[in-house]
Amino acid sequence: MGLRFRKSFKIAPGVRVNVGKKSAGLSFGGKGLRYSINTNGRRTTSVGIPGTGLYHVSTSSSGKSYKTKQYQTRSQLNAQERQLQKLQEMERAKYEVTVFENQCELVKTIHKEADEPVNWHNILTSSPPFEKGTQGPNEHEARKKYNEYRPNFFERLFKMDEKKYKHLNEEIQQAIIEDQNQYNRWEELVGFAREVLAGNIDTYLKVIEEMDPLGDLSEFGSGFEFSTDDPAYMEVEFEVHSESVIPSEQKSLTKTGKLSVRQLPKTKYYDLQQDYVCSCVIRIARDLFALLPLQYVIIHAFDEQLNTETGHNEQLLILSIKIERETLESLNIDNIDCSDAMNNFSHNMNFRKTKGFAAVQKI
């Protein structure tokens, strides 16, 4: 049998405060009539005849008992509204926990979203969309519609056929423009392929600008600067901005479905930060290898950190790495731990479990 706790004390004539383990209440009156109100919503009325042992007790768990159907319905609707609000709060809590958990997984899997390789040899030898000087496919279809049009009786009667022929002719002119644009795009792409395969550095940079392979990382606030003086490699300066990506709070659900928010432990924060940075550099290398015929990529990752010597935030180099195409392509990308995978390449990284990244020198 569990222990029960209850304390009662008088605060005024006929008025007592009752304190229990889970609730508190007030009681009013004396012998023969007493009325009690409890914090859990229960109300109790005791009526008796002193000295007879006869008494009557009535208890209600809510407020006033309404007589009319309209008031009863309003009370029920209010109760439903409170229940709906509670359910909405629980759903919101689940959503926030799901967002938190997804973000934690996302920062560790950036490297898996690399672009498909571009085959510049196939592009260079590809056939044009149509022979120059002949009808393009769009013009051919538009002229076919024009030639096959036969106005019906009412169209001829109300001279609607003239308007229709004019419209079909306009479609032919638009189709000619679309065909020419398609042919120009093919010529431009073939020109890109020729220059890329010839190792034209300016074309390399233009291809990166046009195709924007790291656009989704830019959405996280990351910045990139590309440079090279040799078609065999590309050097990238990567601004991490991890503070806008790594969550600082840990979210979970209580047993009752409420949202629990706590500060993310430092060790977990720094682990996520390291995984994010390492996943990003692998992703950068994979995208550049998919886009250009490079032999290796050098990546310098910078992040804003507090310099304890000056007391100011500064951009510090936290990872410098050289990634060779052959080595990267030999890895099982789906199964690697990105932080551990750094050991496959020449790199400078000083990471501490309880303090995070420290500044390093370029490789």
Structure at a glance:
The protein has 363 residues and is α+β, with helices and mostly antiparallel strands.
What does this structure look like?
The structure is a single chain. With 363 residues, the chain is of the alpha+beta class. The protein folds into three domains: 6-60, no CATH class; 88-115 and 213-358, no CATH class; 122-197. The chain is 41% helix and 27% strand. The protein has ten helices and 14 strands. It has helices at 69-106, 120-124, 137-148, 153-157, 160-197, 201-211, 215-218, 266-291, 325-329, 338-341; strands spanning 6-12, 15-20, 24-30, 33-38, 43-49, 54-60, 223-227, 233-239, 249-253, 259-263, 296-307, 312-324, 346-352, 356-358. The chain has a six-stranded antiparallel sheet, with no helix packed on it. A hairpin with a 2-residue loop joins strand 3 (24-30) and strand 4. Helix 3 (137-148) packs antiparallel against helix 5 (160-197). The chain starts with 5 loop residues before the first strand and ends in a 5-residue tail after the last strand. The model has no long low-confidence stretch (mean pLDDT 87).
